[in-house]
Amino acid sequence: MSSTVNIFVVSPDTRSERRYDLSLTVGQLKNKLELITGIPPQNQSISVYASDDAPEPVVTLSDDNRQLGFYGVRDWQVLKVTDLDPSASFTGQLTDTSQVDKFELSENEYAQRHDTVLAYKQRNKIGRFADKPAEEHVEAEHVDIPVGARCEVESTEEDFRKRGTVRFVGPTEFAKGTWVGIEYDEPIGKNDGSVKGKRYFECKPNFGVFVKPDRVKVGDFPVEDINFDDDEEI
Fold first, then answer.
1. Which ranges constitute the DSSP H helices of the chain?
2. Which residue of 14, 47, 171, 172 sits 20 to 30 Å from the alpha carbon of 93, by its own alpha carbon?
3. Where's the CAP-Gly domain (predicted)?
């Protein structure tokens, strides 16, 4: 059984993914969360949810002397940190724009103005107003990388091995050419197997990545544990 957990930390002004040791006491956790949320430890109320949209918490971390492991905190659960005294730390005010005066134009009024970015782009044929070049037909290259194979991805960091399993090989909608979708053994990726709303394979958040075939080496690569610092953001 792992001695650490990967969890989402959510507060009125922040959201992040963290890895913590299950031997941390709730009091020690609150000290770490103050640096992330800006909420003083004495004002924190921490509830554990199974997911972002879960209506009720699984448990509340009510005893500062208890360890996380005592409460059965598991990977990818959500720690929601509530500020019991927001007036002391201005919690929520950074994201509250209800009191900000706004200058607004309708889309039609904006389109009729000549001193806007939109008008400038139209005059100079920039962005979506640029002349469309004839699209070149690019065939996806054939690569000998079987789906399901173990692999290692080329890394610029010395002695750092990015290992995982090939989950997808082929063309994509986000870029031209052939891409290899990989599920890493550790949460060092960039996605969950989907890009821009298009899913190519299934995996946990931050375990998925897409790379060009020339960066992938297929072989008998066993799973290696990667040590993360407690406070490192994944």
1. 26-37, 86-89, 107-112, 117-124
2. 47
3. 170-212
User: What is the domain-level CATH number for residue 187?
Assistant: 2.30.30.190
Residues spanned by the domain of 127: 103-133
SS3 category, 163:
strand
**Residue 127 confidence (pLDDT):** 80
Instruction: State whether 116 and 65 are in the same domain.
Output: no
pLDDT in tens, 150-199: 999 998 887 788 999 999 999 999 999 999 999 999 999 999 999 999 99
Shared domain check, 72 and 22: yes
Domain assignment present for 71: yes
- Which long-range CB contacts under 8 A does 182-186 form with residues at least 24 apart? 182/151, 182/153, 182/208, 182/209, 182/210, 182/211, 182/216, 183/207, 183/208, 184/208, 184/209, 185/223, 185/224, 185/226, 186/225, 186/226
Distance from C-alpha of 198 to C-alpha of 93, rounded to nearest angstrom? 35
Q: Structure tokens of 218?
A: 């297929």
CA distance 120 to 114: 8
pLDDT of residue 234: 29
Q: What is the mean pLDDT of residues 113-136?
A: 77
Enter the tokens of residue 174: 């986000």
Would residue 14 count as lying in a domain?
A: yes
Residue 31 belongs to a domain: yes
Rounded Cα gap, residues 159 and 57, in angstroms: 41
Domain match, 16 and 75 both: yes
Q: Are residues 28 and 84 in the same domain?
A: yes
Kindly report whether the global pTM for this prediction surpasses the value 0.90.
no
